[in-house]
Structures are given as C-alpha cells and as structure tokens.
Write a structure and sequence with these properties.
The complex is a heterodimer of chains A (245) and B (254). Chain A contains nine helices and ten strands. Chain A is of the alpha/beta class. Chain A has a six-stranded mixed beta sheet, sandwiched between helices. Chain A has a four-stranded antiparallel beta sheet with strand order 2-1-4-5, with helices on one face. In chain A, helix 3 (99-109) runs parallel beside helix 5 (144-156) and helix 4 crosses helix 5. Chain A is globular. With 254 residues, chain B is an all-alpha fold. Helix content of chain B is 76%, strand content 0%. The longest helix of chain B has 41 residues, at 14-54. Chain B is globular, with a radius of gyration of 25 Å. The chains are: A alpha/beta (245), B mainly alpha (254). The interface between A and B is large, with 50 and 36 residues.
C-alpha cells in the first residue's frame, strides 16, 4: 500500500442532542496518526452519530474537534470533510455514474483536475482495491462487496488524512465481508489513520490499536484491544461482549 | 344509408382534409411546437426552482413555492391564459412593440406547467435516498454542489415519465392560446383546423387537426412507457459474483 497523509484526530467532550434526546454526552476520542481506533457498542449507542459529528456532517452542540492538534470547528466544514474520507454501511455509491466516475467526481470538481488526469488517478485507486476491470460498469451491476470496495476507493482518491468506516460490512452478505475487511486491514497496516465503527469483533480485536466501547452516548471503556476483550473492567462491557461473542 | 354517408362526409371528407393539410403542417405544426417546447423548457426551469424552494430549509421559500403551486395548479388553464394574455397585453405591447400574443401565451403556459413540473421534480428529488446527499457531503461537496451533481440528476431521471406526460398535456393545452386572437401566420394546429371548419361548414379539417395531434402525442405516450420500463429494469447486464479477496493482497491472509 502507498504512503498515506495521515493525521492525528481528537474529539474532546463532544455533546449532541436531538431535541430531548441526548445522543452524545461528552465523548472523548483520540486517534494517533497512523493508528486505527475501533468503536464498538450496542445499536443506538451513538457510534455512527459520533463519526458524523467528527467530520461535521452534524455540528456538535459542545466540545472540540482537533486535526493534528488544531481545532477545525471554525474551518469551512466542506474543506474539513475533504480531509476525512468516509465509508458507509449502505455504500452510497452514485448510481447514475459509472464506477470510475464515482471515484473521479471529487477529483474533477473539488481538486479541479482535468478529466483525463482525474480518470487516471481514479483508475489507480480502483486498482488498489482490485476493481480496475469494473471501471466502466454501473454500481448496480456490482456485488455488495465490490460496491463497498469502490466506495473505499472513492474516499481514498481524495488522499484523506483520516478514514471513517461506519459499519462498513454490516450490509454485506457473509461471504463478501472478508474481502472488505482484508482491504481495511491493508489500509490500517499501511499507516492510514482510521476510525472504525464496527460489529466485527474479530477486526476490532486483531487490527485496531485502541478500542472504545460506547453505550448510551458515553465512552464506557477505552484501551488496547487485549485489555478490553480479555479483561473488561465494567459490567456493561462484560455484558456486551457476552452478547456478541 | 344516407345518414351514414352524411356522417362520413361530415367527419372524413377527404377533399376538405387534403386542402387543410399544407396549412396544418407548414403553419400549425411549427407554431404548436414553438408554444409547447418554449413553455416546456421555461416551465422546467421555473419548476426546478420551485422544487428547490419546496425542499428548502427556509420556511419562507417553502411557503412561496406552496402558494404558487396551489394557485396555478388550481386554476383552469384557459382562465390563466385569458387573464395573462389579455391583462398583460398592454405591457407586452410596450415591451415588444407587437401585438403578437405568443410571448404572453408562452408565459401563461409556462406558469401553469411550472406548477406541475415543480411538484414532479420535488417528488423525484425527495425520493433520492438520504445517503446520497450524505455521501456527497462527506466527500467535501457543498449542499449546492451535492444537489446539482448527485441528488437532482437522480431525482429527475426517476420522474422522466411524468415529465413527458406533462409535455404531452402542454402540447394539447397550447391550443388554448387561440383564445387570444391569432394572425393568420400565428395560428397553431387547432386554430387552423377550426378556421377551415368554420369556412367550409365541414368538420373534416378539425378531424385532420386531431389526427396531427395524435401523431405527436401517441408516440410520446409510448416513449413514456419505454423509458418507464427501462428505468424499472435497467439495461440488461449480467451480475458477476464477487471475486472475494483474490486481488487485494496480504490483508486477505491476515
């Protein structure tokens, strides 16, 4: 894998409410440059919302977000999101564009690359995820696993400093999960800074450098995977692990 | 038998039909197309604006779009055409220096079409999954660029059949412009058929005009069905099974 322009990402005391629903209640998350943080926890614990707050798809009510030690809350959120790639549970490829157009769109329109150069770079990214031969297909004609790998290529094309994965394998058929996890593992080992919200406990345990367990909008436990998975300190994490493992 | 002959002569008098065909094709057809295409294009632009206002986060914009749509969808086309065509004619004469009712006819048809097309676009845009906007914003596109590049193109594609239907109805409603009084060279299909009928006392020219309308609208109707089917099923293409982790390297063995 190529070198990544990785950055260090920090969320400090993040709060978010939807009306009376207090979804995030003071979350701290620190992801050191080149490392992978996984976020686990039961459904509705605020994991996916945390990702959306940290790239400001949703603005936090309170708290701070730092990229390489500098607060980004006053930046243009569109520019911040160009620095943070995101991969979704439902892939969210653009169905009206071909595979290579999905990857090159932001290169052309945001990086302002000429069409041929954008296509060349997009093909390079597709090659990295093993789908160069599908460049001119429509997303609808790809399997779920292939679609998700294209979505990863689309995010990587912008040379992000951090990658977010929001339950990237949850919508995949079991036999397709492995290919996507393998690609994510390659990225992590290649030095990409990643925040991975996941139900894949194997990935969380084997690949991430730090695991954060969230429940009901708070971080219940956080630490190296060996510690959380073999010696959970809280009853809530013990209960969660016994439910999912 | 006499009665049948009389009916045949009233509706299908071949001579009267042939006489009116040149005027129908050379004058009526281009004029009808000018009215329908101009108001179709302008109505689509205004309709898109109304749709964007209708889904805007700004309550004032939504309110304006709502009221506009209620008014122009709720009025008979002929009333709008008369009110605008007659009411604004002094202003139009001032600006264009001519008595040609086309600008106002096109304006009236545009205002009506925009109300319907706006609702068509709005429903199409709102049917696009929320994740599309989210994915585009996550790449770093602004709300406006995301709508323009990702959401609106998909929304419009989904409502193409409804849009063509709207154009068909515009093609037919363009006949109502005759109410504004047309010079000989400005007459559209219906008016030419109608005049010939009045002159000859025979309905056949009007029947010929009707046939010309059908020649325009029936293929469009079938075109709608075709794109509707295509949008539902897509181009036939084979799905391949995922090659799993084969080409992606070391991680696969991890």
């Amino acid at each position: 894998m190529t070198e990544f322009a990785s950055g260090t990402l920090t969320g400090k005391n993040l709060h978010l409410s939807f009306g009376h629903n207090h979804v995030l209640r003071g979350i701290d998350l620190h992801v050191e440059k080149g490392t992978t943080a996984s976020v686990i926890g039961p459904s509705g614990s605020g994991k996916s919302t945390l990702l959306r707050v940290m790239n400001r798809l949703i603005e936090p009510d309170q708290g701070d977000i730092l990229l390489d030690g500098r607060s980004v809350l006053k930046d243009n959120p569109d520019e911040l999101r160009q620095r943070i790639g995101m991969v979704f549970q439902q892939f969210n490829l653009f169905p009206h564009k071909t595979v290579v157009e999905n990857v090159s769109l932001a290169l052309r329109k945001l990086r302002k690359l000429p069409a041929d150069q954008a296509r060349a770079e997009a093909l390079e990214q597709l090659d990295l995820v093993g789908l160069k031969h599908k460049a001119d297909a429509r997303p609808a004609n790809l399997s779920g696993g292939q679609q998700q790998r294209v979505a990863i290529a689309r995010a990587l094309a912008m040379k992000p400093e951090v990658m977010f994965f929001d339950e990237a394998t949850s919508a995949l058929d079991p036999e397709l999960v492995k290919g996507v996890l393998a690609l994510m593992t390659d990225l992590a080992k290649g030095g990409m800074t990643m925040v991975v919200v996941t139900h894949e406990m194997g990935f969380s345990r084997n690949v991430s450098d730090i695991v954060t367990f969230m429940d009901a909008g708070v971080v219940v436990e956080s630490g190296p995977p060996e510690q959380l998975f073999t010696a959970p300190r809280t009853d809530r994490l013990k209960g969660f692990l016994s439910d999912v493992l | 038998m006499d009665l049948l002959d009389q009916l045949a002569d009233t509706f299908f008098n071949w001579e009267e039909m042939v006489k009116v065909i040149p005027a129908l094709l050379m004058v009526g057809l281009p004029n009808t197309l000018i009215l329908a295409v101009a108001s179709g294009v302008l109505g689509s632009l205004l309709g898109l604006l109304l749709a964007m206002m209708g889904i805007s986060r700004n309550a004032g914009a939504r309110w304006v779009a709502r009221i506009y749509t209620d008014i122009f969808r709720g009025l008979p086309a002929i009333l709008v055409i008369l009110v605008i065509g007659i009411g604004l004619s002094p202003i139009a004469r001032e600006i264009t220096g001519s008595r040609n009712p086309y600008p106002l006819g096109i304006l009236a048809l545009t205002l009506i079409a925009a109300a319907y097309i706006g609702e068509i676009f709005r429903s199409g845009i709102q049917s696009v999954e929320k994740g599309q906007l989210e994915a585009s914003r996550a790449l770093g596109f602004s709300y406006g660029s995301s709508m323009r590049l990702v959401v609106v193109p998909q929304g419009i594609r989904r409502v193409l059949p409804a849009l063509v239907n709207q154009f068909i109805s515009l093609l037919k409603d363009s006949s109502l412009v005759f109410m504004l009084g047309l010079a000989a060279s400005d007459r559209e299909i219906f008016r030419i058929g109608n005049d010939a009928m009045a002159n000859t006392g025979n309905l056949s020219p009007l029947v010929a005009a009707g046939v010309l309308y059908l020649i325009l609208t029936v293929p469009l109707t079938h075109f709608v069905n075709f794109i509707d089917h295509r949008l539902r099923t897509g181009k036939p293409e084979k799905k391949e099974p995922d090659e799993l982790a084969a080409p992606i390297g070391k991680g696969a063995q991890a």
